[in-house]
Amino acid sequence: MLASWLDDKRTSHRGRHPTPNVDCQLTRVKVKPVATRARRRDQAAQTRVRILDAAYRLLLAGGYEATTIQMVAEAAGVAVQTVYFVFGTKGRLYSEVENRVVLGDAPSEQWRERPWVTQMQ
């Protein structure tokens, strides 16, 4: 039976592969543009800043022990996993908040030359 089916297909298509009888419909799909690396990098930087800002406000208001990663994530509008992905631990997040307070938004800035630092010396 299989041999006769193969013979029929071979002779009816003259050496071409038989095409299955399939009813196909094409559907239009909206495709979002692929994000560029620069845009992804900018979005990641903005997310990092939102998390740091939220953590700063919460740490200032309630202290280290009272502030949870869940609270920081909710205040920043991100998932808890995002906070852990970006900072790893609560201690590292706290350390980054401290660095931002001391160094400011631009770590390359000469922070030792800031007026409040020179007044402390």
Provide key terms for this protein.
single chain; 121 residues; mainly alpha; Tetracycline Repressor, domain 2; 6 helices
Describe how the helices and strands are arranged:
Blueprint: H1 2-13, H2 37-66, H3 69-76, H4 80-87, H5 90-103, H6 115-120
Helix pairs in contact: 2-3, 2-5, 3-4
Characterization of the model:
About 65% of the residues lie in helices and about 0% in strands. With about 120 residues, it is mainly α. It has a single domain (about 35-120), classed as Tetracycline Repressor, domain 2 (Orthogonal Bundle), CATH 1.10.357. α2 packs across α3, α2 (about 35-65) crosses α5 (about 90-105) and α3 (about 70-75) packs across α4 (about 80-85). The longest helix has 30 residues, at about 35-65. The protein starts with a helix and ends with a helix.
Number of H- or I-type helical stretches: 6
Number of strands: 0
How many domains in all? Answer: 1
Major β-sheet annotation? none
Structural class, please? mainly alpha
CATH-derived topology? Tetracycline Repressor, domain 2
Tell me the Rg in angstroms. Answer: 30 Å
Order of helices and strands: HHHHHH
Rounded average pLDDT: 79
Structural shape: elongated
Spatial separation of the terminal alpha carbons:
97 Å
